[in-house]
Amino acid sequence: MEGLLDHTLRDVLTRVGGVDRCVSEFIRITDQLLPKRVFTRVVPELLNGSRTPAGVLVRPQLLGSDPTCLAENAARLAELKPAGIDLNFGCPAKTVNRHRGGAVLLDEPELIHRIVAEVRAAVPEQVAVSAKIRLGVQDDSRAIECAQAIDLAGASELVVHARTKAQGYKPPVYWERVAEVREAVGLPVVANGDIWSVKDALRCREVTGCKDLMIGRGMVRDPGLALAICTQSLAGTPGVLETNAEPKVSWSELLPLIAEFWRQISLRVEPRHRPGRLKQWLSSLRTRYPEAQAAFDEFRTVHDCARIDAWLAHAVAPRARDAVNVITEAHMAH
User: Fold this and answer.
1) Known active-site residue 210
2) Are residues 156 and 293 in the same domain?
């Protein structure tokens, strides 16, 4: 999710729990060997054992179409001891596709095979190589062929977004096709696409037969979604679930995470761009939190960082004081 889900939001979201691994935004590989600082700038977790501060593994993702150049960059990336290397064959963005990157390569399964095979051969055996695809470009007629090409090239895992490039992110999502892909390959398959709730997750698992799920936009909208899915899975039989059930993480619990997001953004982003980053996340959160809608409306035309500082200080501080009061009362009870 280029432009929003970077290492700052990975840090904040993985503090909630329920996430086993993250995949970074893509690092574009064209015609040159990148210096290590490029990899660590996009994935600073590489300097922390390839983990977020909460301890969740992060797998860097590469995007490109030149097998040799991708392999050379993967070898350099491997020197930083990443938690695996992921290859992007799923991005539907026109600019990316115009430069022969992402989902457009799904019309060339032979090339995809070469890319995966050369990357696999270029990195140590202990470094996992995975890939993400969509069901195809204009249609899904070559989905199984692409998946098998990746499998035969030696990949350890395949993520399948259950739409074609042409379908973008528009409903519906075709989970049944993911099931057909899974049955046609030997490597583990992870299902992706339109998982907005626990009910969606359980249904996706049922239809695809995939144990593991990848959540993107759903986690940005509802930071407690992965934790809610894990909790429900551990509980066993789900019973009746509603897609509009209360979020696992309340607004009062989310506010300190928003404040931490803002703090980190303020350390590295120019003041004129900071409000836009916060409003971008609030825009996603407002689908699950009425309070986020109110905050978004309040700051829609605001470009003054000081106003946002003051809002967060006012919103978060009372809750911090309440926590102190609870602790004090508990201590007095003893």
Assistant:
1) no
2) no
Sign of CA dihedral 152, 158, 161, 162: positive
The C-alpha atoms of residue 58 and residue 9 are separated, in whole angstroms, by 13
Q: Is residue 242 part of a domain?
A: no
**Tens of pLDDT along 200-247?**
999 999 999 999 999 999 999 999 999 999 998 876 655 444 445 789
What are the φ/ψ torsions at residue 299 (nearest 5 degrees)?
-105, 10
Annotated catalytic residue: which of 22, 91, 146, 210?
Answer: 91
Angstrom distance (rounded) from CA 197 to CA 211: 16
Q: ω before 172 within 30° of 0 (cis)? A: yes
Q: Is there a single domain that holds both residue 218 and residue 319?
A: no
- How would DSSP label each residue in 28-59? E--SSPPPHHHHHHH-GGGGGTTB-TTS-EEE
d(CA 102, CA 87): 9
pTM: 0.91
Parent domain of 313: 251-333
